[in-house]
Amino acid sequence: MSAGSGSRNTNTEPWGSFDDNLIQGGGSAVIDMENMDDTSGSSFEDMGEMHQRMKEEEEVAAEAAATEDDNPDDGEFLGMKGIKGQLGRQVADEVWQAGKRQASKAFNLYANIDILRPYFDVEPVQVRSRLIESMIPVRMINFPQKIAGELYGPLMLVFTLVAILLHGMKTSGTVIREGTLMGTAIGTCFGYWLGVSSFIYFLAYLVNAQITMLQMLSLLGYGLFGHCAVLLITYNIHFHFLFYVLWLLVGGLSTLRMVAALLSRTVGQTPRLLLCGTLSLLHMLFLLYLHFAYHKIVEGLLDTLEGPNLAPMQRVARDVPELTLNATLRNLGASLRVH
Amino acid sequence: MAAAEEASKPFAGLSDVSISEDIPVEGDISVPVGSSRRDDEFSTLDEPVKETILRDLRAVGNKFVHVLYPKRSSALLRDWDLWGPLLLCVTLALLLQGGAADSDDQGGPQFAEVFVIVWFGSIIITLNSKLLGGTISFFQSLCVLGYCIMPLTVAMVVCRIVLMGGSGAVSFAVRLAVVTVSFGWSTFASTAFLADSQPPNRKALVVYPVFLFYFVIGWMILTFSPSQ
């Protein structure tokens, strides 16, 4: 309604005539009916819509319809006005449509919550048992394993991972230029979850594995539980040996569980190797990356590794002596000069 | 008594319907005269601006008190507003501003970060509670979560005062204690308000993101160190 009322208040040229139409009523309706023949039938619908939209103008329009028969001969005189009126109406229509689209998009987003609700239909006990099961690989690959299609657990695990990453970034003194820690953490975690899920799903589709996108999201999401546990421990206890043990043990177990589930749903040697190899490689490397990317000790290494390529995300250790910082700056300068 | 008998006359047909004595008959009858008088009372057209602002501030302050004494009252839910949350969020973000060692390029993100964490965090928690079948409206939940940051904002103020004294082990211990208490307080208060609107078997699922949310904020406050 707001677009309609707004259009009446403005006094630019096309709108002005539009106003005239509505106020004078009589003539414009006549011309509109005439013009309808050479434009298209859709202006009839426009007319109908206009009637619905502008409730205040309804009486005027009705009056117009009534007077249509009374003065059919001044159509020639009002021809110009009629065209302008149509232009005005088109503009008004566009404005209205745009506004309506925006509003309905926002509303749909909220209304669509109901569509997502089944995926969040869990009990605390179920979540707990699924978290534990995510660390227990099942050696049954002849019959398709059951994978729960649920999103609460994965989503919460991703948010937990974001929080843990933030913690790791802060304690390691990571400074990210042109970005926030929060944005980077969220981007990394959601990017991994959604990206790898879609990728594996795509691969699974190629090799004809029986898995849905929802199941893939759930499987990978619960697989992040191991990551959360390992990172939470190793961000606080800085033993490399401990990390490697946990990486192999906990990360390996959660990867094995996913691999077993995928194996049971794929047929053939090569597809299995392709699918499970990709997944386990990505999953294990991601844990390795998360640990070392935001860890105190290896920041210098990372600088050299991704210095020139990822200029906007370059990390500068806060605690390293002047010498290293200068080296970093020199690197940056060199890379700038190269560009 | 006579009036009561007269009043029951229109329902003479229902006279054989018996209501046992031990069931109290209750109801709320709104009198039309009262409503017009209330309109006069609430007319804010001719009152001074100061009064309007003060009334709003009083409402916000009143809700602060509700957070400090988190008894299961519905005042925070019934007439929600987002002024209090905005005030608290901006205060917290300003207090956290100017932290970090190299403040020149951490200054911007710090404020934005706090702001984004608070608002997006609340929105995510709210959506989560809606998805789990909560009966609370979107802005009510946002209001409650926003107001319940107050203990953490207070903790931030205390931390800044403590940090002025110095940053040794003792100061860290004090800050840790303060932040832990206020974190617990925030979580407890928000669950006290939000728990009623949730299905009873799923409270743990709703509380977890709330816990995570306040934990992140509390942790940010704890690790805050002012630039020298």
Automatic annotation (TrEMBL), chain A:
Per the record, membrane topology reads: Multi-pass membrane protein
Per UniProt, subcellular location reads as: Cell membrane; Cytoplasm; Golgi apparatus, cis-Golgi network membrane
Q: What spans are recorded as compositionally biased (Polar residues)?
A: 1-14
Output the InterPro entries linked to this UniProt entry: tRNA_Mod/Golgi_Maint (IPR051521)
- An example Gene Ontology cellular component term from the record? plasma membrane
Q: What is its main location?
A: membrane
Q: Which GO terms describe its biological process?
A: cell differentiation
Locate the transmembrane regions by residue number. Answer: 151-169, 181-204, 216-235, 241-261, 273-294
Entry protein name: Protein YIPF3
Q: Which residues form the signal peptide?
A: none
Q: Which PANTHER family does its entry note? A: NATURAL KILLER CELL-SPECIFIC ANTIGEN KLIP1, PROTEIN YIPF3
Compositional bias of kind Acidic residues = 57-75
Region (Disordered) residue spans: 1-75
KW Glycoprotein (keyword) present: yes
Protein family per UniProt: Belongs to the YIP1 family.
Its keywords, alphabetically, are: Cell membrane, Cytoplasm, Differentiation, Glycoprotein, Golgi apparatus, Membrane, Transmembrane, Transmembrane helix
Q: Identify the species of origin.
A: Seriola dumerili
- Organism superkingdom: Eukaryota
| Described function | Involved in the maintenance of the Golgi structure. May play a role in hematopoiesis.
Automatic annotation (TrEMBL), chain B:
Where in or outside the cell is it found?
Golgi apparatus membrane; Membrane
Q: Which family does it belong to?
A: Belongs to the YIP1 family.
Any single GO CC term annotated in Swiss-Prot or TrEMBL for this entry: trans-Golgi network
Protein name (Swiss-Prot/TrEMBL): Protein YIPF
Q: How does it sit in the membrane?
A: Multi-pass membrane protein
What InterPro entries does the annotation carry?
Answer: Yip1/4-like, Yip1_dom
User: Which Pfam families would you find in this protein's record?
Assistant: Yip1 (PF04893)
Membrane-spanning ranges: 80-99, 111-132, 144-166, 172-194, 206-225
Q: Which UniProt keywords apply?
A: Membrane, Transmembrane, Transmembrane helix
**Can you give the residue ranges of the Yip1 domain?**
68-220
* Keyword Membrane appears in the UniProt entry: yes
- Gene Ontology biological process terms from the UniProt entry: endoplasmic reticulum to Golgi vesicle-mediated transport
